[in-house]
Amino acid sequence: MNSPIDHTNLPNSGDAAQVSDICLANAKLVLSDQVVRGSITVESGVITEITEGGDIPSGAIDCEGDYVLPGLVELHTDNLERHLEPRPDVDWPHLPALLAHDAELASTGITTVFDALRVGSIHTSGKGGYGEYARTVADELLAARAQGVFKISHFIHLRAEICSQTLLEELARFSPEDRVGIVSLMDHTPYQRQFRDLSALKTYVAKKRGMNDEEFKAHVANLLNLQNQFGAKHEAGALAEAKRLGAVLASHDDTTAEHVATSSENGVNFAEFPTTVEAAEACKEHGIAVMMGAPNLIRGGSHSGNVAAIELASAGLLDIVSSDYVPAGLLLSAFELAKVWGNLCRAVSTVTRNPAKAAKLTDRGALETGLRGDLLRVRTFDDKPILRGVWSQGRQVG
Asked: Using one digit for the tens of pLDDT, what is the confidence trace for 93-105?
């Protein structure tokens, strides 16, 4: 069984078998506040030395002037669920799904991930229902991690569906020993937040679950009934469970200043995908970090019609980027933000140092001595990043 998580300094137990030594030299090292030419040494999985200059020590890898960045830190990704259910109602064997997910993230430069698992189910005979799965998948994930089969570092992010029937029962099945680093409050009630425009919800569920008009109307009515019956109880219970688990709390799809004020009162640490400038500005006022999705940033807008990430970035209201549903988008988004801000260090921090800080991980997220040796070697072509190497605690994994 894993040791309880201390969010002032999350332990690395279970990753220890993967540590190694390496020196990357003749590189442009992207530090938190400047880019310097130099070398970086990792011993026993930890950064032990950063040296400026073009010297290439014996046995070092010559990076030929490529960038070296910290490994990317991913707080919210739907990628694991995509591997578990590659098509609607197609259940894939869990261990192969976990391994494929892990390998895919490693190949895109993500070295720390909080795997998002939904808690809270809806039992109905219609197409709007879905069952429990989080506890089973978490058991398999933790068992695989204990055996050292993963390439990167995995934590658990529980997506607490307020508008459901079984949220509190499912949360109760988790303990502080389960590496639950984040609990996010997900309220997908129709006519508010992400789904203020009901057509966005209809497009989503019609494509995912194949609902016709009558089935969609029944689905909306059921969700509204669940919110009326369980909403307040589930929100209060989820807050208590997050505290019991020692998890960082996140809000989801805040839309108004009132939403953000409530988030602040609840002790939310970061806001996932606020849908308006108003909400992002309120987050800034309350000291809540703002996270937006890489697909929104790269595509130039939200597929749901919400505020564009680039608009928030230009206004100085963007702190963290998540790959959301495209793992390869995380590294690309940093280099896109560097063009907007004219500051590569600031841009890289949105996918490394800032998410690590938001999740209260103090042992990673920057190129500093004493931190984990999670490193990326990156070359650019046509202003786009090309990943040339990925190391997790000094061990090459991509």
From this structure: 999 999 999 999 9
- The 3-state secondary structure of 243-292 reads HHHCCEEEEECCCCHHHHHHHHHHCCCEEECCCCHHHHHHHHHHCCEEEE
pLDDT at 189: 64
Taking the C-alpha atoms of residue 103 and residue 340, their distance in angstroms, rounded to an integer, is: 31
CB 297 within 8 A of CB 353: no
Q: 173 burial class (0-12, 13-18, 19+ CB within 10 angstroms)?
A: middle
- Cβ count near 148 (within 10 Å): 11
What predicted TM-score, i.e. pTM, was given to this entire model? 0.89
Report d(CA 304, CA 367) in Å as an integer: 36
CA–CA separation, 391 and 107 (whole Å) = 10
SS3 62: strand
Q: What domains does the chain contain, in order, with CATH numbers?
A: 70-366 (3.20.20.140)
For residue 365, CA distances in Å to 90, 357, 378, 380 come to: 36, 8, 16, 21
Q: What is the pLDDT of residues 247-265, one digit of tens each?
A: 999 999 999 999 999 999 9
Residue 232 confidence class, pLDDT cut points 50, 70, 90? confident
Nearest alpha carbon to residue 279 among 299, 266, 262: 262
DSSP alpha helices (H): ranges in the chain? 79-84, 94-107, 134-146, 167-171, 198-209, 213-245, 257-266, 277-286, 294-299, 309-314, 329-341, 344-349, 353-358
Sign of CA dihedral 146, 147, 151, 156: negative
Q: What single letter denotes the amino acid at residue 143?
A: A
Element containing residue 359 per DSSP (H, E): none
Token pair belonging to 146: 């204990």
Please compute, for residue 138, the number of CA atoms within 13 A of its CA located in the half-sphere on the CB side. Answer: 27
The phi, psi pair for 217, rounded to 5°, reads -60, -40
Q: Is residue 147 classed as helix, strand or coil in its secondary structure?
A: coil
